[in-house]
Design goal:
12 helices, 27 strands, 27% strand
């Protein structure tokens, strides 16, 4: 019965963490075997989280292990094996390096052994000078300094990435040796329970959360033969959502307060509520509380807290750019329409009111997603195309290289996020969103011609002129007329695909300020590839206003 409940709890937590962090299913640590003389392992130590989600896992990137601390700390205590540089001058002269022997002494010529073990680095010069003066009462000066800390070898074991024996200096910190071992394994190792064993007994216990949060680290000297042990992970609960630190946090015991977890996660100012998924029971239960009410509650190993901003939208901010003479930033009530906004705008004399443009962040993101999906599909088609002969395979390889280079350039194109207003039954009824930009264009008497023409340029609008006439004024098609695709983009975001028959028509609805895009011809061995590329050509022209040649 217990095993069935445990398995259901593990599965529930796995589902929550996958949804929360987007990682693969977490690895469940095996319970450490309990020796007869060993202390029992808490059941909460069997629960772990994905590698990159553990709070503090980022500190072990190799930087601590890159530089050994040689021991010029004023608080450092002289120990066996240290090198001391000594200079004597005056009535007796001596210059050399002295090594602290196994009895903790250095032997000074004409003076004899001087016990220096345990002397603080900042007191070393005074201490040795006093010892010299006991023999040379006058006319002999002394200067002593610590040349280098004792080399030591330390075992690092427990739940680290690569346990082993590591060399350093007695003045190096525990972080140096942990980093040399690849850091704590965030799936299995504890950041709260790191032990230093000396002579078979616990010498120090270190909580790395104190170092991460406040910079506090116990100050002590490592001795040769010490063992650093990273104990099994303790209890964990995850916090995600509107917080600065979206991580799994470790704590001692079988429960901790919501307030202590939120203090580590640091909710963003807009956070209002906490959704707590209770995963440590036979059935998953969910609580939804205001953030202040939730602080008084407790969480257990495996629980997941999602901090959310649950507020009713009161007002939104919309910016108006272009040909306006008054305010450009408008605060509108939630649910306001484009018509209500335009009624408050002071249009400039040259404003083209029938060509209002609406730029929206959500539309820009959607256009980018669509473009990326089309480019990924094109890449897949290029990379999986088959050839019947070696010659054809060589041609396809060269073709694929060109297309893949073009795909990379296309990925860097940023859509504008323009909403097409020309097809709306009533532009005034369009609901505004937070961050919308309404652009009022200036009245234009120009037609822009882009793409595969000899001289892409702008030219004066001529009433009754055809699209073909404008293309001819731009130097004409660089490729054959029959192989080109032509697109007309109106200023309000609407567009029209032009057939070959319509190139000479005077009834296609061409207006001042419109843009004519002559899309490049696609030459490829595959008909499907050609169609995919043409589709992306249209997407780039409509969403970003660019023609990206292949």
């Amino acid at each position: 019965m217990f095993e069935r409940i445990k398995k259901s709890v593990q599965n529930a937590i796995s589902v929550m963490l996958i949804a929360a962090f987007g990682f693969m299913q977490p690895v469940w640590a095996q319970t450490t075997p309990i020796a007869q003389d060993a202390e029992p392992v808490n059941q909460s130590e069997a629960t772990t989280v994905p590698v990159d989600s553990a709070f503090g896992s980022w500190i072990f990137g190799g930087e601590f292990a890159n530089q050994s601390f040689i021991g010029f700390n004023p608080s450092y205590e002289i120990s066996v094996g240290d090198q001391i540089s000594l200079q004597l001058w005056g009535g007796f002269e001596f210059t050399g390096d002295l090594t602290v022997d196994a009895q903790g002494n250095v032997f000074i010529p004409k003076v004899g052994p001087v016990a220096v073990q345990g002397v603080r680095n900042e007191d070393l010069n005074t201490y040795i000078s006093d010892a010299v003066k006991k023999v040379f009462l006058k006319n002999v000066g002394a200067y002593a300094s610590l040349g280098g800390a004792e080399p030591v070898k330390v075992f690092v074991t427990g739940f680290v990435q690569k346990a082993g024996l590591f060399q350093g200096h007695s003045s190096d910190s525990v972080l140096y040796f942990l980093d040399s071992a690849g850091g704590i394994d965030p799936e299995r190792g504890s950041f709260l329970d790191v032990k230093v064993i000396r002579g078979g007994r616990e010498y120090r216990s270190i909580n790395l959360y104190d170092f991460i949060l406040t910079g506090k680290l116990p100050s002590f000297q490592i001795a040769d033969g010490d063992t650093i042990v990273v104990r099994p992970i303790l209890s964990q609960a995850a916090v995600l959502g509107d917080v600065q630190n979206s991580n799994a946090f470790e704590f001692r015991g079988n429960e901790t307060s919501v307030d202590s977890l939120l203090a580590l996660a640091r909710p963003l100012p807009q956070a209002t509520h906490v959704r707590i998924s209770r995963n440590n029971m036979a059935k998953t239960e969910v609580e939804y509380l205001e953030i202040e009410e939730a602080r008084a509650g407790t969480v257990h190993p495996g629980d997941v807290l999602e901090v959310v901003s649950d507020k009713l939208q009161g007002t939104i901010s919309v910016r108006v750019e272009g040909e306006v003479t008054g305010a450009q930033e408008f605060v509108m009530p939630y649910g306001a329409t484009l018509g209500q906004l335009l009624s408050q705008v002071d249009f400039g004399v040259n404003a083209q009111r029938d060509a209002v443009q609406l730029l929206r962040h959500s539309v820009r993101e959607r256009q980018k997603e669509t473009l990326d999906a089309q480019l990924r599909a094109l890449e897949a088609s290029v990379l999986t195309a088959r050839s019947k002969t070696a010659a054809e395979a060589d041609l396809r390889q060269r073709e694929a290289e060109l297309i893949l280079q073009w795909v990379e350039r296309a990925r860097n194109v940023e859509p504008k996020g323009q909403v097409s207003l020309g097809s709306a039954s009533s532009v005034d009824d369009i609901l505004l969103e937070q961050g919308d930009i309404v652009r009022i264009p200036r009245t234009s008497n120009l037609i822009m011609v882009h793409g595969d023409v000899l001289f892409p340029s702008a030219m004066a609008y001529q009433d009754g002129s055809t699209i073909e006439a404008y293309i001819e004024q731009a130097g004409g098609f660089t490729q054959s007329r029959s192989a080109s695709n032509v697109l007309v983009l109106h200023r309000d975001g609407s567009f029209k695909k032009i057939s070959k028959r319509q190139l000479r028509s005077r009834d296609i609805g061409l207006y001042p300020g419109d843009e004519i895009f002559v899309l490049p011809r696609v030459q490829t061995k595959s008909f499907q590839l050609a169609q995919d590329i043409i589709t992306i050509f249209y997407q780039l022209a409509l969403s970003a206003g660019v023609v990206l040649r292949l």
